[in-house]
């Protein structure tokens, strides 16, 4: 019986010991699965997949830094712009160019034909004086020339139109600094003609030609004008000096020239207000801007912006400006939207001032230096 108790006690002891040895091992296994399970090839992809999202998180953190870097635009070169934009003169081309060429190509050039030619020139705003001259010279020359091939006629017409555009006029844009003083270009014109847009485009023309530019937002009367100008300038790295809305335009212009001198830029471009209530008001305002700017040195260029679609009306307004300030060049805008391309001829004759630039669209680089030969070539098109 004693043996039986001893045997039971031994068995119980053995069970207790066995349990004590096995349980801790199991616990350890449960706690250390990665160590006890070495990575297999099959397990590798999930690890990559888990790490992958980390990369986008990192770039997302860096992303806001990128837009802070200024991305300056490189304006198109100015040479050849008129050639590139020649198709924009399509409306003037069909009225003036093709219209004249088709009449000239008739078998007989009788009085009716010459009247039609005269009408085409007048319709496209060439003006009475220039029209009479062009028709008379063409009449004489076609009479003298016995045979008239389409090529000869095109050449004759081209010569007469180019000569009416006074190719000898100086169309240089005076934008080169003198000593340590930047060139000062004042831009004047009636509101709505495209004055501020032209200032912006002109800054691009100058930058394309290698100049450094500073803009003066002296049109303090039109609320959006300064913002508009600043946006144009920022695109090509040109600083804009502006004043409070409704502030004194002359003081903004003065500050702009001073800042331009301090920053050693090549050209200071000043946009002015073009309210035309009364001639006296305009005279006072523009005259003051000019006088104040001239305390620091002369104004090198005064560009008058004219809307080509306004015809004779625009010319009347233009005359007022030439009486107020010494206009040295005309910028004729919106030539792309009119059949009245002949206005280039009448504007120059009436005002005695050269057209230096033409606007041929709303695009940033749709402002071209004016060239009489290229212009006439575009008007007459490719048809001989
Ligand atoms: P501002 O009041 O004289 O300063 O006139 P803006 O510069 O604000 O221009 C008036 C409008 O004329 C804008 O919609 C311009 O985009 C447009 N404009 C300016 N120049 C040209 C051009 O050469 N062609 C065309 N089609 N539109 C132009």
- Unreliable segments (pLDDT under 50, ≥5 consecutive)? 17-61
Structural class, by secondary structure, is: alpha/beta
How many helices?
Answer: 16
Q: Major sheet: size, sense and barrel closure?
A: 8 strands, mixed
What does this 3D model show about the protein?
The protein is α/β, with parallel strands linked by helices and 384 residues long. It has 16 helices and eight strands. The chain has an eight-stranded mixed sheet with strand order 3-2-4-1-5-6-7-8, sandwiched between helices. Strand 6, helix 15 (343-351) and strand 7 (355-359) form a beta-alpha-beta unit. Helix 9 (150-164) crosses helix 16 and helix 12 (249-262) packs parallel to helix 13. 39% of the residues are buried.
Provide a short characterization of the protein structure:
The protein is an alpha/beta fold and 384 residues long.
Notable traits:
single chain, 384 residues, alpha/beta, 8-stranded mixed sheet, 16 helices, binds guanosine-5'-diphosphate
Helix and strand layout, with pairings?
Layout: H1 2-31, H2 33-36, H3 44-51, H4 54-62, H5 81-84, H6 90-104, H7 111-123, H8 128-144, H9 150-164, E1 183-188, H10 195-208, E2 213-218, H11 225-235, E3 239-242, H12 249-262, E4 267-272, H13 279-293, E5 301-307, H14 311-324, E6 329-333, H15 343-351, E7 355-359, E8 367-369, H16 372-380
Parallel strand pairs: 1-4, 1-5, 2-3, 2-4, 5-6, 6-7
Antiparallel strand pairs: 7-8
Helix pairs in contact: 6-7, 6-16, 7-8, 8-9, 9-16, 10-11, 12-13, 13-14, 14-15
Bound molecules: guanosine-5'-diphosphate.
